[in-house]
Amino acid sequence: MNEQIKKTTIIAVAIQKGGAGKTTTVVNIAAGFARANKKVLVVDLDSQANLSLWLGFEHDGKPTITELIVSSIGGMVIDYDSHIRHFSSDRFDYIPAFEESLKGIPSYLASRNDCTNILLKTFSADYFKKYDYIIFDCSSAADLLITNAFAACDKLLIPVQTDYLTYSRVENTLQTLVNIKKDADIQKYILGFIPTMYQNGTNHSAEILEALKESYGELVLNKISYRTEVKNAVGYSRSNISKPNSKSGQEYASVVNAILKRLED
Questions:
Q1: In angstroms, how far is the first alpha carbon of the chain from the final one?
Q2: How would you class 260 by CB atoms within 10 Å of its CB: exposed for 0-12, middle for 13-18, buried for 19 or more?
Q3: Rounded CA gap, 90 and 27, in Å?
């Protein structure tokens, strides 16, 4: 019998609105996957480098995502191991971003042929097949980095802060996915919507959550409540999932279970 070929699944976490909880979601989803014994790589694609900051990255002279992209475009021999750091608190790997160098990458990509498929080419390398999941932490900007992330991803996970301004950007994000995938049937690419920063007891959050469910039905995952402990987790360089008795960690763990069931069914 032929052995089943292992497929690495690339997940982009994105919405075209800042402050929606993208980085928090990436860290906790990655931690949850790792706790389920999945091999996980997280990639910081946001020039603000908030993910790298959360994970305690300090510029160490070794290559970051910027150098990986430039080397891939140039057809250079790449030492992939030198780009990888390990986040021991939650047992997953990551490729950091260095804010100053990543800011210039969208302009650099614009000058290249096939400028929208560089990340697809980069992460198709055999080296990355050892991972079960690769998760992109995307910026909110509608630039060539997000275009590349959407072109390369198998699934899109959309955190939606439960307020009107963020909810109003969902359709823009989905339309961007349609344009990049060149496929009107995008439901097969949507992993789910995570309602974030839900303020219990407020009509506004409840109304936005209901609107999400009316529009996207079973694609809407369990909500993540607004809690101070979520913001505090950044300072401790750890996920909420890894913190004992964390209410937010329990909510994210429930989301992870639902996501894994969707991916593996």
A1: 22
A2: middle
A3: 9
Angle formed by the axes of helices 247-264 and 228-235, to 10°?
A: 90
Strands (E) across the chain are located at 9-13, 40-45, 85-87, 92-95, 133-138, 155-161, 190-196
- Cα separation, 222 vs 126, in Å, equals 35
Q: Is 40 helix (H, G, I), strand (E, B) or coil?
A: strand
Q: Which two tokens stand for residue 77?
A: 């021999």
State the residue for tokens 């909500």. Answer: 223
| Total Cβ atoms within 10 A of residue 116 | 15
DSSP 196: E
Q: Which two tokens stand for residue 111?
A: 């000058």
Nearest to 92 by CA among 120, 123, 132, 145: 132
Enter the tokens of residue 18.
């800042």
Note the pLDDT of residue 27: 96
Q: Computed from CA positions of residues 25, 18, 189, 134, in that sequence, does the dihedral angle turn out positive or negative? A: negative
Predicted pLDDT at 6: 67
pLDDT tier at 5, thresholds 50, 70, 90: low
Could you give phi then psi for residue 23, rounded to 5 degrees? Answer: -65, -40
Name the DSSP letter for residue 128: G
- Tokens linked to 106: 């969208």
Specify the residue for token string 């390369």: 152
Q: For the stretch 40-74, what's the b/e string if a residue is b when 16 or more beta carbons lie within 10 angstroms of its beta carbon? A: bbbbbbbbbbbbbbbbebeeeeebbbbbbbebbbe
pTM over 0.90: yes
What is the strand order of the sheet 155-161 is part of? 85-87, 92-95, 40-45, 133-138, 9-13, 155-161, 190-196
